[in-house]
Amino acid sequence: MTSIVSISGLTKTYGSGFEALKGVDLEIEEGEIIALLGPNGAGKTTLISTICGITSPTEGTVSVGGHDILNDFRGARDMIGLVPQEIALEPFNKVWNAVSFTRGLFGKPRDDAHIEQVLRQLSLWDKKDSQIMALSGGMKRRVLIAKALSHEPRVLFLDEPTAGVDVELRRDMWETVERLRAEGVTIILTTHYIEEAEAIADRVAVISQGRILLVEQKSALMKRMGRKELRVELIEPVDSLPESLAHHDLQIAEGGQVLRYAYETTGQGTGITGLLADLSAAGLQMRDLSTRQSTLEDIFVDLLRDGAEEPEAASTTTGSAASRDAVREGTA
């Protein structure tokens, strides 16, 4: 596929000397949804702000749809819709006027039908004549999204769009995201709700301390790095494991009533057959067995904890080898 956002060697150093971005390289494909994950202070918002022209880069290049963000700022910015974390709206303005005005700021001709469609998609139509100050926090968040979509962008940035909002808005938001993807809009999402990224993203990028640690297809990442856990519920609890089970990587949980056994999903063998035989030989009677697949959140936490040390990079993975020295703490 064709890249619609190209980032090469991007750095951002503030006057204090703090490096918020450190040589970021990233290609975002047209029509995809990519989730940008990282701890607080990892550089997510700085990266988005730089692409959108809010923050000037120190070094490196960024282009959106072939438009360089410095040499052709207007061409690049016209292609971008941004839903920021902060709710900053004119309190006395009416919803319809606020959304229509934003469309005009981008030099787009009046299109009442498009504005109506956006407001209806976000359940704002019945609020179109309401002053923004009279809206709830969730409704104000919807107005931000409507403003970002008012000029029909081809790239949409969602910076923590569902943080602190109601379940209904989240549902409407993701339904809108799916419709936009069907129309070919590229979506870059940052979120603390990793289950949302797991549900809708095509690819996942992990950023920490200003470096991209990993970019990979979500399904491939989970297959390559995922683990499963076998949960063995015992009839009688145990305080310790027999010596014959010492070579198995078992953990005692829930007051000795449960044994947990983690194994790789991509390994040659799981070791479960031998484990169950050894449990029986040790006289431990099982009440129930169940398995659990690791989630994207589990993988994300492991990447940060282990410094993103991973197997040889797959062809879908980008990011410098130096970035794999990874981060154990996020900085602001």
Q: Give unreliable regions as ranges.
A: 308-332
Shape type? elongated
The overall pLDDT average reads: 83
**Percent helix among the residues?**
25-40%
Look at the structure and name the CATH superfamily of one domain.
P-loop containing nucleotide triphosphate hydrolases
Q: In what range is the share of β-strand residues?
A: 25-35%
Q: What class do helices, strands and sheet pairing give?
A: alpha/beta
Cross-sheet strand order for the largest sheet: 6-7-8-3-9-10
For the CA atoms, what is the radius of gyration?
24 Å
Largest sheet descriptor = 6 strands, mixed
Distance between the termini: 34 Å
What is the CATH-assigned architecture of one domain?
3-Layer(aba) Sandwich
Counted beta strands: 14
CATH fold annotation of one domain: Rossmann fold
Gist?
By secondary structure, the chain is an alpha/beta fold. The chain has helices spanning 44-51, 73-77, 95-105, 112-121, 137-149, 167-182, 194-200, 218-225, 272-281, 296-305, and strands at residues 3-13, 19-29, 33-37, 59-64, 67-68, 80-83, 155-159, 186-190, 203-208, 211-217, 227-234, 250-253, 258-264, 286-293.
Give the secondary structure arrangement, pairings included.
Blueprint: E1 3-13, E2 19-29, E3 33-37, H1 44-51, E4 59-64, E5 67-68, H2 73-77, E6 80-83, H3 95-105, H4 112-121, H5 137-149, E7 155-159, H6 167-182, E8 186-190, H7 194-200, E9 203-208, E10 211-217, H8 218-225, E11 227-234, E12 250-253, E13 258-264, H9 272-281, E14 286-293, H10 296-305
Parallel strand pairs: 3-8, 3-9, 6-7, 7-8
Antiparallel strand pairs: 1-2, 1-4, 4-5, 9-10, 11-13, 11-14, 12-13
Helix pairs in contact: 3-5
